[in-house]
């Protein structure tokens, strides 16, 4: 079962819960854009595709919000460069 990516605007981050661990994507809002600033995947989850699951969920949530995304985080920038289906929401 896939866990959903959850937006926590009070903490300026998206979360993906895997067991007792959280993969996180931090952001800031700039007008109608979400700037992705940092991604963290716990070492215990490394190499299991968790970062990619987090990224896909983040980009899907941003698309659903009607906003654009600015991937300043190197992980998110690299991920979206390999997924051109999200080019329509990338700004910058």
TrEMBL record:
All residue ranges annotated as the N-acetyltransferase domain in the record: 6-91
Top-tier EC class: transferase
Q: What is its EC number?
A: 2.3.1.-
Question: Any keyword Chloroplast?
Answer: no
Q: Does the keyword Ion transport apply?
A: no
Among Pfam families, the record links this protein to: Acetyltransf_CG
A GO molecular function for this record?
A: acyltransferase activity
Highest taxon, organism lineage: Bacteria
Which UniProt keywords are present, listed alphabetically?
Acyltransferase, Transferase
PANTHER family, sorted: BSR4717 PROTEIN, PROTEIN NATD1
What is the protein name for this chain?
GNAT family N-acetyltransferase
Source species, please? Bosea rubneri
